[in-house]
Amino acid sequence: MEHGNPIWTIDVLGLPIIFNLSTVLMIVISSLIVFLIAFFMTRNLAVRPTGKSQVLMEVLMNFVKGIISGNMAWKQGGRFHFLALTLILYIFVSNMVGLPFAFVAPDADQTLWWKSPTADPAVTLTLASVMIVMTHYYGIKMRGTKAYIKSYVEPVWFMAPFKFIEEFTYNLTLGLRLYGNIYAGEILLALLVMVMTSGAIGFIGGFIPMMIWQGFSIYIGAIQAFIFVMLSMVYLSHKVNEDH
Amino acid sequence: MEFLILGATETIPSAIGSSLVQLVTFLVLLGALSYFVWKPLKKVMDEREQLIHSEIDEAEQRRMDAVKLKEENEAVLRETQTEISAMMDNAKNQAKKEQEAIIHDANTRANQMMETAKADIEREKEKAIRDINDQVGEISVLIAEKMIAKEINQDDQKDLVERYLQEAGGK
């Protein structure tokens, strides 16, 4: 059940920079899958689409556009379109990538190599941080420093500490919600795999729960990708919109 | 399971490397997808939108043109119809006038001819009467001459008168 992590450390000026190689591997693989899928689905683009792939990508585009324009004016939100698209596709594929199988190295630590990259808090918190930092950047850029600082003491001045803390909790909740869902899903999958490999009865007993849980994980993965992008856009709109 | 607990000694440093990789990879992915996928796709979609807009505009324009053309045609048609009816009226009036003129002419000429004929007849009659009168006179003179020339007897005279009367009647 408990898997080891392939850790690789380098020292930069005496500080240890530690890489989880499995996570790094899965990040690269997920990104490649996302890129290749999106790339090959949009090769024969035409004003009058001939294949299903272009229509599918356009549906995705309009879906994400709907998420953004549900939160802010398209004049402001249009610039986040590509970001939100990339984000939702990357998180969705990352969530899916750990579902069909896992790869555990046959060593003493049972090092886990194949998993969802989003089952690592470092990944989800990084993505969340990118989004939250971006909200602050665009909040200042699009409304000005004064309006940005003023937003902390609105509606009353003593709300400022809460508002300040809120920015960090946004980051944590955004990242950890995704991580928790996917990690828990993978733990349960690993448990079910253990049950199924324990013997004939275990295999028969574990088969149906395994299927159900995998199906449910697909649902969770899709929903979590949507929620992540949705909330990112909500936080962005809080910072970017004049009134909320 | 200690990496579940945030703040555990191994977790924070462990996060930094993976974090950096995630950040860089995501930015690269964002750039690559934007350049290779989203931009062309958006371009195509925008083009389609433009196309639809322009097509709708064009259709609207054409509809307006058609309406205008229809109105123009109707106006022309109305004008033509008015013209035609005016022409028909003119023609009718003209024809009527001509008809009247012809009838009038014919009447006049007929009357004239009648008058002429009447006058001719009258003249001929007068002439005939005059001729008869002349002849009667002549015959009377002749009779008188004969009677004067042949002063024979009553019987002879009677015979003579009868003969000449017969002569005159035979004429």
From TrEMBL, chain B:
Source organism, top-level taxon: Bacteria
CDD domains named among the record's database cross-references: ATP-synt_Fo_b
Topology of this chain in the membrane: Single-pass membrane protein
Record bears the keyword Repeat: no
Keywords for this protein: ATP synthesis, Cell membrane, CF(0), Coiled coil, Hydrogen ion transport, Ion transport, Membrane, Transmembrane, Transmembrane helix, Transport
Residue stretches spanning the membrane: 20-38
Locations listed in the record: Cell membrane; Endomembrane system
InterPro entries in the record: ATP_synth_B-like_membr_sf (IPR028987), ATP_synth_b/b'su_bac/chlpt (IPR002146), ATP_synth_F0_bsu_bac (IPR005864), ATP_synthase_B_chain (IPR050059)
Positions in coiled-coil regions: 107-138
First-listed, main subcellular location of the protein, grouped into a coarse class: membrane
Record carries keyword DNA repair: no
PANTHER family per UniProt: ATP SYNTHASE SUBUNIT B (PTHR33445:SF1), ATP SYNTHASE SUBUNIT B', CHLOROPLASTIC (PTHR33445)
Assembly notes: F-type ATPases have 2 components, F(1) - the catalytic core - and F(0) - the membrane proton channel. F(1) has five subunits: alpha(3), beta(3), gamma(1), delta(1), epsilon(1). F(0) has three main subunits: a(1), b(2) and c(10-14). The alpha and beta chains form an alternating ring which encloses part of the gamma chain. F(1) is attached to F(0) by a central stalk formed by the gamma and epsilon chains, while a peripheral stalk is formed by the delta and b chains.
Protein's job: F(1)F(0) ATP synthase produces ATP from ADP in the presence of a proton or sodium gradient. F-type ATPases consist of two structural domains, F(1) containing the extramembraneous catalytic core and F(0) containing the membrane proton channel, linked together by a central stalk and a peripheral stalk. During catalysis, ATP synthesis in the catalytic domain of F(1) is coupled via a rotary mechanism of the central stalk subunits to proton translocation. Component of the F(0) channel, it forms part of the peripheral stalk, linking F(1) to F(0).
Family according to the record: Belongs to the ATPase B chain family.
Name the record gives this protein: ATP synthase subunit b
Organism: Salinicoccus jeotgali
UniProt lineage: Bacteria, Bacillati, Bacillota, Bacilli, Bacillales
Gene behind the chain: atpF
